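Supplementary Text 2. Reproducibility record for the structural model of the 200-residue chain.

All settings were left at their defaults, and a single model was retained for analysis rather than an ensemble. We include the record here because the model underlies the residue-level annotations in Supplementary Table 4.
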Amino acid sequence: MQHTLLVGVDLSRVDNRAVARFDFSQAFPTPINIFDPEYSSVPNPSTESLPLFFDNDIRADRLGIYLQDQIDILDNLMLVAGLRYDTVETNLVSGTNVFGPEEETNQTDDAFTPRIGIVYQPIEPISLYANYARSFNPSFNTFDANGDSLPPEEGEGFEVGIRGEIIENRLTATLAYFDITKQNVATADPIPPFASVATG
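Retained model, structure tokens:
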């Protein structure tokens, strides 16, 4: 058997500032005539004069460590197995807004996510394959109606299929079945604007 080992580390940082201002007390302006538009008919208000809807500063630091081994068991049979560890530290500074008073929150999320796959070639141009994997994706920019961060999105999926090379290096065809299940998917909350709920 021949092994191809892959080890890696990745680091990332997300800095995001989101500010929204609205004034629902003002009457709606006259609709613009698209054939004869007059943009100065309603003066634009200054940004500072509008009430603050929300003001968030977010910093998220992510560290990922992964290990993968590709094993050639036979000339026509290959196995790939991998494991990844992620840890994410999120710092949120929320200014005084409709969600509540100013506050600072820190959150740490981590997870191990495995993946495994196998490929078998009964003849040279045909490959039969199957794989299974889990996923982990923290949500740093989504909040519920209370202003709290949503839990990380997690999922798992498997796939089986057949791939054939019909014309060498020019035309391939794939037939596959896959199933992916996710939980804690950020979805727009139907009641308060800009809020989300975790579904899945």
